[in-house]
Amino acid sequence: MSDNNDHIKDLSRRNFLRNSAVTGVAGASLAGGFGAGALVRSRPAEAATNNEHHVEPGELDEYYGFWSGGHSGEVRILGVPSMRELLRIPVFNVDSATGWGITNESKRVLGPNAPLNGDTHHPKVSYTDARYDGRYCFINDKLNTRVARIRLDIMRADKILTIPNVQSIHGLTLQRVPSTERVFAAGEMIVPLNNNGEYLDDPSEYWTMMTCIDAETMEFKWQAIVDGNLDNCDTDYSGRFVAASCYNSARGMTLPEMMGPERDWTVIFDVPAIERAVAAGEYTTIGDSPVPVVDAREQAHQGRNAFALYVPTPRSPHGVNTAPPEGKYCVVSGKLSPTCTVIEWSRVAEWFDGGLSDPRDVVVAEPEVGLGPLHTTYDNRGNAYTSLFLDSQVVKWNIEDSIRAYNGEEVNYIRDRIDVHYNIGHIKASLACSRDVDGKYLTALCKFSKDRFLPVGPMHAENDQLIDISGEQMKLIHDGPTYAEPHDALMIRADQLNPSQVYTRDDPYFAETVAMAQADGVTLERDNKVIRDGNKVRVYMTSVAPSFGTTEFRVKQGDEVTIVVTNMDTIEDVSHGFALVNHGINFEIHPQQTSSVTFVADKPGVHWYYCSWFCHALHMEMSGRMLVEPA
Ligand code: RUQ
Ligand code: CUA
Is the pTM here over 0.70, yes or no? Predict the structure, then answer.
């Protein structure tokens, strides 16, 4: 095949979504063409030939990457730059390997009637002074309006909240300074406040809210009603503000209605102002939710809105990202506009302190970057990198130069473009949400992989590409197929995380199970006992490779059985599993962990249980029998 043909084929692949999408957004502010952007032509990615980024077998990665699992409901950990998947953390899903959604310990976190699916979008690791402190990872569930906190010592969620009064949590972000005391969760869909069925037919009464959660207690602090649908959000580096992109300012119910105005907003909340009002009792509550609600809509304020600043931003803005290392600017990516809007945080403070006359005065630049800008990330040399969904490119541009251009100087702020494969959404450079930004690697989370991998049926892998951004020109160095569907990712330095290798016996994750054993007079670390309490039977056993402490127990058909297993192995990586055949039960018991499950023994007969994690040469023999007498 000639080069020429290849080129045509490549173009048609690349354009397949772009053309239809451009038609679809006709009328959106695509006018203005490519401006200064056209001065730097895109370079097709070269296949990686060198191996300076290769992580040899046995070598460890430089970064931990936290990936959302999208509608798989998980969070994943990858090593970067190898892009090797290290762990899946089940959160809003049922996991057959770990027993998440099956064990009593996980059900306590999920809640008794929790939906066992979800749609995770934006993982965020906690900060101390805008640096990753490795304590928690927070993640939103867009599907069932929840926020979870994952403990990064044991890599399990320990708190999950359902957010009241709103529908769909999309944007999620954390306070950075002085540390992560607050979590901000942006409600997306507008619904009646109170959504109890009384008001269905009057969309002019539908609203959404920003929710603030105490990161330590995981209790709600407040909610603020806003105009329009909230999308993505990010905080500043002073601890005072949180900004959210806001589309559908027309508050339409259908796509044509949503496409109304030329501009939507970036909504910026003054957190201390809201909290002063809440402390003074100036709030309402909705329905039976006790969460304090303040009104941050424009209509609720005479003169200057004390709670929120609505910055007119070209139609349907999407990503909101504060620039490290000082957090001077915030870039809002245009999505349906070929621009990025650069907001200077100090001007936002000026506005709330009574200065500036026009909300647009906080905008210091609005560079044209290309078609379909979704998210922006950064290096440590003053450059921004924006994902272009329609162009299937990453564009590198210089922030200070874009400000000079906005002020009328003849300056080309575009530094480089690179093709990605294909239709990129999120983008994140190493440490780019923190003071430690290092400008080394960038992940490009492409929504389509098309022809990049062996075909595996109608469902294709996503393609998370890795780009070397350390030089003048970006260099594509890795294609990473991923399962449906990472939305966002972040990278922290390997030394910024210190996970446990073995549980400690006082871990709060299974403290309630320990308390139950104590009430039964059972010492979990030693006893193998069956306690009968009416038709409730509690079976306590230890596990030490290659045997369970109890290899036979007897119950009656219809008994409610609780099995509690304590792994007394102390060596890291000697995990056991407890799997009960034909009962849908399997769960993890890692060294020094206690895990439990409760079920009704409804089938008379002999039922084997076995260890499901290969732990020993006699692993296959690590088993026992549950004998169920007919009722
Ligand atoms: S959003 S592709 Cu759910 Cu993060 Cu922008
Ligand atoms: Cu214990 Cu396999």
Answer: yes
What is the chain's percent helix, strand, coil content, to nearest 5?
A: 15, 40, 45
Question: Using one digit for the tens of pLDDT, what is the confidence trace for 253-268?
Answer: 999 998 878 899 999 9
- Looking from the CA of residue 619, the nearest atom of ligand 2 is 2
How high is the pLDDT of residue 5? 46
Separation of CA 621 from chain center: 41
Main-chain dihedrals φ then ψ at residue 10, nearest 5 degrees = -60, -40
Instruction: Output the CA 138–ligand 2 centroid distance in Å.
Output: 32
Q: How far apart (Å, rounded) are the C-alpha atoms in residues 236 and 328?
A: 8
Distance of CA 376 to the CA centre of its chain: 16
Q: Which ligand has the nearest atom to the CA of 616?
A: 2
Write out residues in the chain with pLDDT < 50, as ranges: 1-9, 16, 19-39, 48
Position in ligand 2 atom list of the atom nearest CA 545: 1
CA of 621 to the centre of ligand 2 (A): 8
Cis bond upstream, residue 630 (ω within 30): no
Cα 336 to averaged position of ligand 1 atoms, centre (Å): 14
215-226 pLDDT, tens digit each: 999 999 999 999
425 lines ligand 1 (CB under 6 A): yes
Given the DSSP bridges, would you call strands 167-174 and 156-162 parallel, antiparallel or unpaired?
unpaired
- Ligand 2 site, residue 614, Cβ cutoff 6 A: yes
Instruction: Give strand pairing partners of 623.
Output: 610
Distance CA 595, CA 587 (A): 8
Kindly compute the dihedral angle of the four CA atoms of residues 318, 319, 320, 322, in this order, to the nearest 10 degrees: -160
String of DSSP letters for 313-341: EESS---EEEPTTT--EEEEE-TTSSBEE
- Whether 615 lines ligand 2, by a CB cut-off of 6 Å, is yes
Q: Is 3 exposed, middle or buried (0-12, 13-18, 19+ CB in 10 A)?
A: exposed
Q: For strand 393-398 and strand 383-388, is the pairing parallel, antiparallel, or unpaired?
A: antiparallel
